[in-house]
Each structure stands twice: as C-alpha cells, then as structure tokens.
Design brief:
Helix content: 40-55%
Strand order of the largest sheet: 1-2-3-4-5-6-7-8
Number of strands: 8
CATH architecture: Alpha-Beta Barrel
Distance between the termini: 14 Å
CATH superfamily: Divalent-metal-dependent TIM barrel enzymes
CATH class: Alpha Beta
Number of domains: 1
Order of helices and strands: HEHEHHEHEHHEHEHHEHEH
Shape: globular
Structural class: alpha/beta
Length: 262
C-alpha cells in the first residue's frame, strides 16, 4: 500500500492542511492535491502559504493544486464576473512558484441549463481565459487541467480542448461528477476526450448526488475505466483520490491496491 501511495494524490483543502493535517501528510508521505478556495485566499497571508509550501518541499512529495470555483464563471458574458474569475485565478498563479505543483486543476464550468442560449460566446470567452492561464501555468512549469462538473456530456466542452490544442492543457476526468451530474456514459467521455486525459479524480456515488464515497461503496464502474487505462497508449494520467471523509480514505486505498491499472 505504501508503494501505491507514492503514485497517487489525495485531496485536502488548504485550510484543513494548515490547521490539522499537514503532519499526517508528511508522516505518511501522502502526495497532496491542495484545494485553494476563496476562503483560504481571504484568510491566509502569502507568508502563511509559503510556510506550508516550505514544509511540504522538505519532503519528496508530488504536489498538485485545485483552484477556486464557487460562483466563478470562466466564460461569463458579464465583465464583472469575468474580472472576479480572473482575479481568483491570478491569486492562485502567485502560489504556483511556492508549491511547484505538477498540475493545477480548474473546473471547466459549462452548464447547458444556464449557458446553453449563449454557448458560442461563453465558450469563446472561456477559451480566451484558459489560453491565457494555461500559458502562465506553463511558464511556471505546471500543467493545467480542466475538470468536468455539471456538463451533460463531453460534447459540452470538447470544443474547448480542440480550440486550445497543444497549449499545456489537459482534461481532468471526475468520475463522481460524471455519475451524479452527467447524462453521457463513461465510455463516451473516454472515446471523446481520452486523447486529452491528463488527470483523474476518483470518488464514488450512487448516481443521484455528489457523495464522494470510498471507491466501491457506490455504483460507478471503475473496472471499465481501469481497463481503458491499461490499454491506453498515452502517458498515464495523474490519479487523485477525493474522499471527503477521513474514514473513506483507507477503503479507497485498499480498493486501488487491488485494482491499480498499472
């Protein structure tokens, strides 16, 4: 199991890492995917972020970050909302040299029910923002990943990846979001966006809400995903476990130990 831990990330909000869990992550050599939300950006000073980053860098850990997403809209046609979204992303950019993450994840953010009537303009705006952000991330040595959340299917955001091309930007497939909010099956996502796949967020649910259960506790077909990964010709994606309760971590790890695709 310790060998497996070396190859995966585990999600942890920065506030929880700072206040309680940093010693746990360091003691067990757990690679963190650190959630940088608006509350953390408002609460902590640059020096406090730097202090945590320095402690992590003293150990041979792989770090990834997850950017803020609440009430942000990367394709918004409202200039004020667009400015706020870019401001939050700029705040995260300033932290990248501190943590030196392998990748930084952001929500793609498209919702057909909200933006369908202006999809072309929304996508155009988001591509412009992601192109700028991806380039800046690349300058800092980090990959940028765009994650599915409320998208019905891969067709909602496929044009984003096609428009961005080879701009240091990959797709983060979130299994729980796909199951709880999506309308398309997993295999369709893999066929449509598999060539862009750079990261995977693993958590389980029963298909009706975003429960973030331990793997194997819901009804997501992880075996289909793992079979795909075993035969995929591309570089293996970053794998992140996303338990939201501490008691779901070890069962997920045990599940991965039995079913690790590589």
């Amino acid at each position: 199991m310790q060998q497996l831990i070396k190859h995966i990330q585990v999600n942890i909000p920065f506030t929880m890492l700072h206040d309680k869990y940093i010693s746990v992550f360091l003691r067990h050599a757990i690679n963190p995917e650190i959630g940088i939300d608006a509350q953390a950006l408002e609460r902590f000073s640059f020096s406090e972020f730097s202090s945590v980053a320095e402690r992590l860098r003293e150990h041979p850990l792989t770090i990834t970050l997850h950017g803020p997403f609440i009430d942000l809209s990367p394709g918004s046609t409202d200039p004020a909302v667009g400015a706020l979204t870019k401001h939050r992303f700029e705040q995260v950019l300033k932290l990248v040299p501190l943590f030196k993450p392998k990748a930084v994840v952001f929500h793609a953010g498209y919702e057909e029910k909200r933006y369908g009537y202006m999809k072309e303009k929304w996508i155009e705006n988001s591509v412009q923002l992601w192109s700028w952000l991806g380039a800046r991330m690349g300058d800092e040595g980090a990959l940028m990943m765009l994650e599915n959340v409320y998208e019905n299917g891969p067709e909602d955001i496929q044009v984003v990846f096609e428009s961005l091309g080879q701009q240091n930007i990959g797709f983060c497939l979130d299994t729980g979001h796909l199951s709880a909010f999506g309308q398309a099956p997993l295999d369709k996502w893999l066929v449509s966006l598999g060539s862009y796949l750079g990261q995977i967020h693993l958590h389980d649910n029963h298909g009706n809400k975003d429960e973030h259960l331990a793997l194997g506790r819901g009804n997501i077909d992880f075996q289909l995903l793992f079979r795909y990964l075993k035969t995929r010709k591309h570089k293996p994606p970053i794998v992140t476990l996303e338990p939201h309760q501490e008691e779901d971590f070890l069962p997920s790890l045990k599940y991965m130990e039995k079913n690790w695709p590589w």
